[in-house]
């Protein structure tokens, strides 16, 4: 059982603290990974601020790439030494939803991991002096992590191992929103509200899907400039310009698809208001607990609008696709990753995220032996 330098959230509204934990080896259908990099995601920040309930103490970090060091029984698709990236949704493959291909609704993932911080035998792989430490997904803000094998995907040699970490949440979530839920078609018009890590991925993937106009909406001109670099055809600073009027001024009508990537009452309402008749609003931003929708019901009914939730994607089909897009150079990971941190800057990275000082995706590089 290796010792693993890790960053631990001891209790809500505290900074992550460095510590050394014991990592139990992989059980059946699990993989032990030496972490090369882990993304800095707003969902982890929600947990830190107690806006999303999760057991504590815990190790966060759910956007991971690394090197396979050991595999449990039944794992045949990867082997020690393989370069891999992991999806934050870790499907069990056996529950009623997984059996239907709806891996993003995996009951065991939500019941065991998201509610209890455990893997699917009801235990954690992390301990400190005999005390179990909760795992948020695979608990990637550490030197080592254990991941259910259905969430582990081999990388081709032409995909940078460090950059590949963001494939497992930012791009994976964006892919689910654009391809699986919205099914954006060539020639459609799209608005993306909030140009953070996930929003920028949605912009990038919507253009790759053939959207004719992709309109980025944010209050930060630097983020909007980055959105243009990643494929936005138009940008709106909603702190300066009323976005519905601006979109109608551009198109003569609303958009076919509006993506909401922040998770707030105001931005969800805006997503619905930006739609053309028959349009679809795709909600991909996680909101603090207790937030509810505030939309005009009659508008939704009479204009035949659709409001769709999107949480990740089916891992077995989406991860190979985003890896393929990266290998073909159709997504630019270097532009999406706007700030890089060393492992000992993990706590600082989340402080900057909380202060809205990370433009795109932040990436923490660990001390892995990349061979």
From TrEMBL:
Residue ranges annotated for the Enoyl reductase (ER) domain, each copy included: 11-364
Gene Ontology molecular-function annotations: oxidoreductase activity; zinc ion binding
Pfam family, one: ADH_zinc_N
Keyword Oxidoreductase found: yes
Residues that span the membrane, as ranges: none
Domain of life: Bacteria
UniProt KW Oxidoreductase keyword: yes
Keywords: Metal-binding, Oxidoreductase, Zinc
Cofactor needs: Zn(2+)
InterPro entries registered for this protein in UniProt: ADH-like_C (IPR013149), ADH-like_N (IPR013154), ADH_Zn_CS (IPR002328), ER (IPR020843), GroES-like_sf (IPR011032), NAD(P)-bd_dom_sf (IPR036291)
Family membership: Belongs to the zinc-containing alcohol dehydrogenase family.
Protein name: Alcohol dehydrogenase
């Amino acid at each position: 059982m290796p010792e693993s330098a890790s960053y631990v959230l001891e209790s809500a509204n505290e900074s992550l603290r460095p510590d050394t934990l014991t990592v139990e080896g992989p059980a059946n259908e699990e993989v032990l990974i030496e972490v090369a990099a882990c993304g800095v995601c707003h969902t982890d920040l929600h947990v830190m601020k107690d806006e999303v309930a999760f057991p504590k103490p815990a190790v966060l970090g759910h956007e991971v790439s690394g090197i396979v060091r050991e595999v449990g029984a039944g794992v045949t698709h990867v082997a020690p030494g393989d370069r891999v990236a992991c999806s934050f949704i870790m499907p069990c493959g056996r529950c009623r939803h997984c059996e239907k291909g709806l891996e993003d609704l995996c009951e065991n993932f939500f019941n065991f991991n998201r509610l209890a911080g455990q893997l699917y035998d009801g235990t954690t792989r992390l301990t400190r002096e005999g005390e179990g430490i909760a795992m948020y997904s695979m608990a990637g803000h550490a030197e080592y992590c254990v991941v259910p094998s259905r969430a582990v995907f081999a990388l081709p040699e032409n995909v940078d191992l460090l950059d590949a970490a963001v494939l497992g949440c930012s791009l994976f979530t964006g892919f689910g929103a654009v391809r699986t839920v919205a099914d954006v078609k060539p020639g459609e018009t799209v608005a993306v509200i909030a140009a953070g890590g996930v929003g920028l991925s949605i912009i990038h993937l919507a253009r790759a899907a053939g959207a004719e106009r992709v309109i980025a909406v944010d209050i930060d001109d630097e983020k909007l400039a980055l959105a243009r670099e990643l494929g936005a055809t138009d940008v709106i600073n909603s702190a300066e310009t009323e976005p519905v009027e601006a979109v109608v001024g551009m198109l003569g009508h609303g958009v076919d698809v509006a993506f909401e990537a922040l998770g707030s009452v105001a931005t969800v309402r805006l997503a619905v208001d930006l739609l053309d008749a028959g349009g679809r609003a795709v909600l991909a931003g996680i909101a603090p607990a207790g937030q509810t929708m505030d939309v005009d019901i009659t508008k939704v009914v009479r204009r035949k609008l659709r409001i769709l939730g999107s949480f990740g994607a089916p891992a077995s089909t989406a991860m190979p696709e985003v890896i393929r897009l990266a290998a073909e150079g159709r997504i630019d990971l270097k532009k999406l990753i706007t700030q890089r941190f060393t492992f000992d800057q993990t706590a600082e990275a989340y402080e900057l995220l909380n202060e809205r000082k990370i433009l795109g995706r932040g990436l923490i590089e660990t001390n892995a032996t990349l061979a």
